[in-house]
């Protein structure tokens, strides 16, 4: 799979926010599940240049957020279109996102945080090489949830 990754447009943000609805349990990731996250995602100023759309053959298949942390570490957040999840495409999607971040930002380490109930995603992250570094409680979607922070050390090319 070859992905095209570029700065997200307002139209793409609205498509994701209002039309992407995940199946039960994973509906936790619906943008509309948390008003604060929804407002930030839809606002071009807060979205800035660190939110990217991921397309394949000009069809939106996912999104990627990238934020710089100290020591050449970059935190990523990503999501696939709901109808594509659970079909064995996650690893290719993740690798494509990692390659993009590596080319654009030259990080030493990537981190991400994922809800601990999302074992499907955690399995993919581990398969690619992410390691669990801490478990923490995060306030979101009107409550507190357990998350795991994971890290991936990039190899020099």
TrEMBL record:
UniProt keywords, alphabetically: Transferase
Domain of life the protein comes from: Bacteria
PROSITE patterns cross-referenced by the UniProt entry: GNAT (PS51186)
Protein name, UniProt field: Ribosomal-protein-alanine acetyltransferase
InterPro entries: Acyl_CoA_acyltransferase, GNAT_dom
Residue ranges of domain N-acetyltransferase in the record: 3-157
PANTHER family: GNAT-FAMILY ACETYLTRANSFERASE, SPERMIDINE N(1)-ACETYLTRANSFERASE
One Gene Ontology MF term: acyltransferase activity, transferring groups other than amino-acyl groups
Presence of the UniProt keyword Transferase in the record: yes
């Amino acid at each position: 799979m070859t992905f095209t990754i570029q700065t997200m447009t307002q139209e793409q943000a609205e498509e994701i926010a209002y039309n992407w609805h995940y199946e039960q349990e994973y509906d936790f990731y619906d943008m509309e599940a948390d008003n604060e996250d929804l407002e930030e995602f839809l606002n071009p100023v807060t979205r800035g240049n660190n939110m990217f759309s991921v397309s394949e053959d000009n069809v939106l298949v996912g999104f990627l957020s990238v934020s710089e942390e100290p020591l050449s570490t970059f935190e990523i957040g990503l999501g696939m279109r709901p109808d594509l999840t659970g079909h064995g495409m996650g690893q290719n999607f993740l690798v494509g996102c990692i390659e993009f971040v590596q080319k654009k930002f030259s990080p030493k380490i990537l981190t991400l945080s994922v809800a601990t109930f999302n074992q499907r995603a955690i399995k993919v992250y581990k398969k690619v090489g992410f390691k669990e570094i801490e478990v923490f409680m995060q306030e979101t979607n009107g409550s507190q949830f357990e998350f795991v922070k994971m890290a991936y050390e990039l190899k020099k090319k």
